[in-house]
Amino acid sequence: MSAGGTVQAVVTGVGVAAPNGMGTEAYWAATLAGRSGIAPTTRYDASGYPLRLAGEVRDFDPGEHIPSRLLPQTDHGTRLSLYAADEALRDSALDPGRLDPYGMGVATASSMGGFEFGQRELQNLWSKGGRFVSAYQSFAWFYAVNTGQVSIRHGLRGSSSTVVTDAAGGLDALGNARRQIRKGTTAMLAGSVDGALCPLGLAGQLSSGAMSTGSRADRAFLPFADGAGGQVPGEGGAFLVLEDAVSARRRGARSYGELAGYAATFDPAPVPSDQAGEGLVRAIRRALRDAGTAPEDVDVVFADAAGVPELDRAESRALGEVFGPGGVPVTAPKSMTGRLFAGGASLDLATALLALRDGAIPHTANVSRPGPGHPIDLVTGEPREADLRRALVVARGRGGFNAAAVVRRDT
Amino acid sequence: MSDANTAVTELSVEDLTSIMRSSAGEDESVDLDGDILDSAFTDLGYDSLALLETVARISRDHGVELGDDVLDDVETPRDLLAVVNRAIAAA
Amino acid sequence: MERRIVITGIGAVAPGKPGAKEYWELISNGRTATRTISSFDPAPYRSRVAAECDFDPLAAGLGRQEVRRMDRATQFAVAAAREAVADSGLDLPADDPAAVGVSLGNAVGCTTSMEEEYTVLSNEGSDWLVDHRYAVPHLYDHFVPSSIAVELARLVGAQGPVALVSDGCTSGLDAIGHATDLIREGSADVVISGGTDAPISPITLACFDAIKATTPRNDDPEHASRPFDATRNGLVLGEGAAVLVLEELEHARRRGARIYAEVAGVGTRCNAYHMTGLRSDGAEMADAITHALAEARLAPESIDYVNAHGSSTKQNDRHETAAFKTALGRHAYDVPVSSVKSMIGHSLGAIGALELVACVLAMRDGLVPPTANLHEPDPVCDLDYVPLRAREAEVDNVLSVGSGFGGFQTAIVLARPERAAA
Taking every annotated instance into account, which residue ranges of this chain make up the domain Carrier (chain B) (predicted)? Predict the structure, then answer.
């Protein structure tokens, strides 16, 4: 029941790589149990940096999941992408070989690309010389690498793309995937698994001024809390199989729900703080209109949850303007993973689908209640059971990017 | 740059296999420890990029200059060992 | 009624002098802008040739703060966008800024700035644990290239959808494709689109050296980029930006805008084959072309000019020649095909947009730009590549293609909006 007979895009497969759980069900169980993946940094010696915490993926042995031939040519983030994409495709039970040769494509988002790989090759170049730079550097670090590697791995030759809109990219990639399905592609493997947990990546993140300098894993990233003091970077995200609803029905696929609405907007150049969030309001309203959904029909919001006071205020103000004060349950399970850059919003959308499936809103960890000035019904303490039909997912990227998506459970 | 280890010794098939493993991995369906000398690299699961990386590694680790055209007529490990060892002998 | 998308403004910063007019003068006269790299000492590298922009950001109207803040790729994009918006006659910021979007292509981000900052933070590569205390305040923006789209969006006051499209060497074309999607679906009426890249830096040279993708023809830099020539031996790196103002047709007509061309069809495919390699039959590019033609409702025979990817590598030029034959049939032998990379090199995420600007100007002036340096055609490249000199021809419908690392294959068809087929 979509406007104007538009093709509907449903999610038939989910794959997750997250700091608190590898694989969809492991992640979902950890999230409902309130288990966080934020912990002291182990990937490198962080003792000299003001931020020594990260949401690192720890239960992942690349040799176990990634073909040996791909190991020397892939950044850690690409390996995690391949893992999540594999899982999503397996979960969908869709055999791309049975589709039209160009019937399935890949849409991803990235922020820094294969950055750890890039730092290593920069070091090879500058400390040893050009002959020491890997032949794989030409693509292993660039932003399109995950789209390319995933398409090759699964033989997906349809329209494919990569978008870079900072942390809004996790939704923009899914919006792009839905566009392709509306234009006639049967299915898309789409989403983002992202992260740059290397010293050079951290230097960039620290320069943004948005990072936390807390040293306690359970106090460092507290979106919407009175004590919010910045973000903790993490790595991971999700891939989804987005499929033409007719194709999904015909092959008897299980659907997690429809990607019913999506929109992206951009903030005007820096505005007075009492107007901040207007761009986000427009994105949410456009996405709701696109989904044919009234604000009162939204059952839960997965927030961008920056953890930076003025950004949190802009978001809660926007949610208040659309839904009324406390008008809808709001949550931020990313409080248990850290900010996954472009990967975060893809994971939020996957989480929203799991919440719809199980009738449970995961809570925002480590936050006992929203701070004053946040007129939102933040789900804290423990998951909240509810009959959920529609969820809104919100994402923002540095500089002014806003994206919003509505998912609807099949009824 | 000339700071590569200049251990000028002949390259054995075992050396080559070990370099290939570290610079390009190995195809799960191929036994690199078997008799591979006359197998085509493509049958061993190695593409041109893998060979470029391998040749670069050999060139650095063994301190030999291998020209742009080194791979032009190389199809098998035996071919590659021959051109590399010729270059090592000439060094 | 289906919304149609037209080009109403162009701007370019191409190798040589900045400006669309200067760019067109260069390539329509068959002159090359490839030379020995001057921005740093290329002596340690195998390939030391590139097509550089003689770009002075202050002369291009950027302020000192902007110059300090922006990577070279961002500066190119801003200069090209100013020119394109002025050329379109649009009054920006618009009355309805929410109907204005940005879709910019870029393959390798702010490489130059990233590498410069890296060398400072790492103490010339000696420290893995880089010292963040030496970071510039906008370091994050150099690491995440969405910052380029942010600058452009602020420049034009866009409040609709804004995106950086990063599909390797097809980014410039794919950004235009994304812009047409945004306008067609009604998410925007105007999209500032195009591509930018400034990749000429030590790390880029080193990584292209490692795969021998760039030419070692260092002793003859002006003639180093030789698409379709039997003696070609690699691409020449370039840099630059092109911005095109894309607009919904009725929106453009209402304000009496000059319309250069309609973006009539877009096709994109992935080869799912190899991160850098191409299948020799060009099947995916051929299918992208067929799809773009179908979307444009044009027969292969109606294409008057093909702007090739023509990167001057052994495998690419063969690959796309095969693709043209598959997709265009007999007409592949009759239609003029040329590669402007012979003159301005390969600027990665920018080149697709620069090539579309060349297509637009070919339509305007009835002049097909040549393939420079083509003296000895490769026997397997047996089409009409317009060697050396531009050719006068009536150009109503144009096909432009791109191919890139990651397997991306894109085709765009430009046409006159008043054509009968539509």
Answer: 10-88
Give tens-digit pLDDT for C124-142: 999 999 999 999 999 999 9
Domain residue spans of chain A: 3-250, 263-408
Taking only the tens place, the pLDDT of each residue in C236-249 is 999 999 999 999 99
> What percentage of chain A carries pLDDT values higher than 70?
99
In the prediction, which pLDDT does A1 show?
36
CATH number for region C5-254 = 3.40.47.10
The pTM (predicted TM-score) of the whole model is 0.97
Greatest alpha-carbon span in chain B: 38
Mutation target for B interface from A121, A126, A127, A136: give the one with most B CBs within 10 A.
Answer: A136
- ipTM above threshold 0.90: yes
Q: Which of A73, A78, A138, A152 has the most B C-beta neighbours within 10 Å, making it the best mutation to test the interface with B?
A: A73
- Domain B13-90: which topology? 1.10.1200
Residue A270 has pLDDT above 80, yes or no: no
Q: For residues A243 and A8, what is the distance between their CA atoms, to the nearest angstrom? A: 8
The reply to whether C169 belongs to the active site is: yes
Shortest distance between the Cα of C210 and any Cα of chain B, in A, equals: 7
Do residues C176 and C102 touch, judged by C-beta distance below 8 A? no
Q: Which of C110, C346, C359, C381 is catalytic?
A: C346
Q: Which fold has domain A263-408?
A: Peroxisomal Thiolase; Chain A, domain 1 (3.40.47)
When pLDDT is averaged across residues A207-220 and rounded to a whole number, the result is 94
CATH of domain A3-250: 3.40.47.10
Residues A176, C415, C411, C214: is their CA dihedral positive or negative?
negative
* Interface check B60 vs C, CB under 8 A: no
A73–B59 C-beta distance less than 8 A: no
Q: Which residues of A fall within a CB distance of 8 Å from B53?
A: 72, 134-136
> How far apart are alpha carbons C285 and C143 in whole angstroms?
31
E strand or H helix at C360? helix C351-365
Q: In chain B, where are the structural domains located?
A: 13-90
- Closest residue in C to A401 (Cα) is C162
Q: Is the peptide bond before A72 cis (omega within 30 degrees of 0)?
A: no
Q: Catalytic: which of C142, C178, C309, C319?
A: C309
φ, ψ of residue A142 to 5 degrees: the values are -80, 165
Q: Do domains C5-254 and C265-415 have the same CATH topology?
A: yes
